[in-house]
C-alpha cells in the first residue's frame, strides 16, 4: 500500500513502515511481538504475535493427575497465581460435586483478594511505567512486596504459590498471619491516596490516558473482553457478584465501573481507575472475610487419596484479576483429565488491541497495551 | 582565560615568537579545565541523580561498601566504577550502520556542549573565553548538538533510533524558539548579550529587601523564566520531555545502538547540557554569581559558590521533574510549545517592553 507522490523534481515513493515491537521490548509485559504498521508515528494496523511463552499447559495436564496440574495453573497467570489455583480447584470440585470446609472458603477468599491487590498494584505500576512515570511503579512494588512477604509466610513461595488445592488449601494460616494481614490493610489503605496524588490525577497522566484507546461496549462484548477492561467500558459485570462462586455472595462490596470522568467511557484512564477503585473493594472483602474467619477447623475436605471424578465435563469460571478465567475439564473417570482448556481473559483483551489502537500513535499503543494489563504467561499458556 | 594566557605568553620571548603555538597552548590550557569540569559534573550529577531518585522512590540507591572499585561507602564510587566499565566495554558498531556518521555523531554532540562551556562564566572573571555575545554563542552551540542526535539516529540504521532522532529534532528545534524569545526579555532589560553586563544589571535590591534579579524584576520576566526553564528541560530531552529516548516506547531512542565509550559521550553531553540550561537560567534570571542577600557574602570565591549553588538547585529541580512526571506524547509536546509557550513568550517580550517604557 505504497503512496506515490508526484513532485516537480521526480517521484517520491511513500510507504508504511513496519515496526516490530518485541519480543524483547521493555513494554510488552513479557514476550509479545507486535507487528505494527506505521505511517509516521500513526499506527495503521497491529498484529500481535503470541506463543513465545507457550509451555503446553493444556497438553501437560492431560498426562498428569488432577492434583499434579495445580502447580501448572500457577504458571499461567504468574501475577495472579492464587486466583488461577482458585479457579482450577473450584472447577475440579464442581466436577467431583464436593464441598470444602467453611474455613477453607474464607481462607481462599482472603488469599485470592490479597493476590488481586498484588496483581492490580503491578498493573497500575507498569501502566505508569509505560507512560513514563517511574516512581509510582516503585511505590506499587513497595506495597506489593508486603503482600508477597505475607504469602511467603503462608506457603514459602513469593510468586507461584500452589496454595489452593483441590478440596482445601495446602497449609493453615501460620500463627500471627491474620494479625499481620490486618496490619497490612491498615497500612495499605491510605497508600491508595498516594497513588492517586502521584499518578491518577497528574495532569500529564490524564492527558496521556484520557480519551485514548476507548473500548466501546459493543466492541468489548463482541471480543469477549472481561474483568476490569470490560468494567472500564461501563459494564457492571463481575463474576463475584453475577455468578458467585465460593462464598462471594456473603460479602458486601461494590463493582466499580468506568464513568468517563476524565474523557470518554472506556478509555485507558477508566480502565486504570477501575483497578484503583478495586483495590479499595478488595480491602473491604478481606476485612469482612478476616472478621468472619472460623478459627478452628480442618483445611482439607475429606477426599480420596486419588482423585477420580466420575465421567463427565464441566466449565467453571471465576473472576481472576484480569477477568473471566474459565476452566473446561473433561473427565473419563480415570485419575487424569482427558482435556483441560483454559479460557484466558488476557487473551481476549489482547485480541481487541488492533481494533482499539488503530489511528493512535506508537506511544499510545504502548499505553493502551499497558492499560489492558495482559500477562503473556496466561495468553500463551 | 584565553586572553589571560595570551597576555602571559606575550611576556615569554620564545612563545611570543610563534603566535600560532601560543594560541593553541592558551586554548588548550583554558579548555582542559572545562573538560575536567564536564567530567566532574557528570560524575557528581549521575551520583546525585541516583541518590535523589532513590530517596524519592523509597530506596537507598547505590550503597556499595569497601574501597577501590567496590563502589565506596554510600556508593560514592559507583559512577567511577561505571566509567571504568564503559571504557572497557566492547565497542560495537552495527554491521548495517553508516560507519563514518555513526562514529562522528557522539563527537558532534559532545563538542557542541563542550564549546558552549567555553563562554560560560563562573564568576565575574572565571570564564574560558569572554565574548561580548556570550549568550548568543551558547544558544547557537546548543542548536549544533541536535545534528549529532539526528546523525546518531540516522546512521544506526535502526527504526527505534530513527524515531528517536526525528522526535528529538522536532522537539529541540521547536523548543529553541520559546527559549530564545524568553531570553530576549532579559536582553531587552540589560541591553547586552554579554554575561558580565547581564549579571551586572541585576545588582542591587528590589522591593527594599529582595535581590534585583531579573526573575523578580517584573511579572513578565517571572513568566519568561519559567518558559525558559521548561523549554530548556525540553531541549535537554529530560522527563517529562524525554520522548527521544522514551525507554518504554523506543527502547533507548536514538542511542539504542550505542554502547561503551561512544554512549558515554552522549551521557557526558546530556549532563553537560543540563548544567548549561541550569547555568543559563541562573545567569539570566537568578543573578548568576550574585549573592541572594544583596551586598552580603559577595566576592569572587563566593561568586563561584553562589553560581554553583543556583545551578545545582535547578539541576535538582530537573531531577525532581524526572522522577515525578509521566511523559508527554509527541503531538502534546508540540501543542504545548507552539500553542502555549510561543504566544506566551511573545507576550512576555511585549510586556517587558511596555514595562520598561512606562513603569520603570
Count of spatially separate domains of chain A = 1
Into which percent range does the helicity of residues of chain A fall?
40-55%
- The overall pLDDT average of chain B reads 82
What is the number of helices of chain B? Answer: 13
Return the string of H and E elements of chain B: HHHHHHHHEEHHHHH
CA(first)-CA(last) distance of chain B: 37 Å
Low-confidence stretches of chain B: none
Number of discrete domains of chain B: 1
State the shape of chain B: globular
Would you identify the CATH H-level superfamily of chain A?
Cytochrome-c3 Hydrogenase, chain B
Task: Give an overview in words.
The complex is a heterodimer of chains A (381) and B (360). Chain A is globular. In chain A, helix 4 (102-130) packs antiparallel against helix 12. By secondary structure, chain A is of the alpha+beta class. Chain A has helices at 57-61, 66-74, 81-96, 102-130, 135-155, 177-188, 191-200, 203-209, 217-222, 228-232, 239-242, 268-292, 345-351, 353-357, 362-372, 376-380; strands spanning 3-6, 11-14, 17-21, 33-39, 42-49, 164-165, 168-169, 312-320, 323-331, 339-343. The model of chain A has no long low-confidence stretch (mean pLDDT 87). Helix content of chain A is 46%, strand content 14%. Chain A starts with a strand and ends with a helix. Chain B is mainly α and 360 residues long. Chain B has one domain (94-359). Chain B has helices at 2-10, 13-16, 19-56, 78-88, 99-118, 134-155, 159-190, 195-200, 219-235, 247-250, 260-284, 300-322, 330-359; strands at residues 205-206, 210-211. In chain B, strands 1-2 form a two-stranded antiparallel sheet. The longest helix of chain B is centred in the N-terminal third of the chain and has 38 residues, at 19-56. The two termini of chain B are 37 Å apart. The model of chain B has no long low-confidence stretch (mean pLDDT 82). Classes of the chains: A alpha+beta (381), B mainly alpha (360). Chain A binds chain B through residues 17, 19, 25-27, 41, 128-135, 138-139, 142, 198-199, 202, 204-205, 207-208, 361-364, 366, and chain B through 53, 56-59, 159, 163, 239-240, 242-243, 246-251, 323-332.
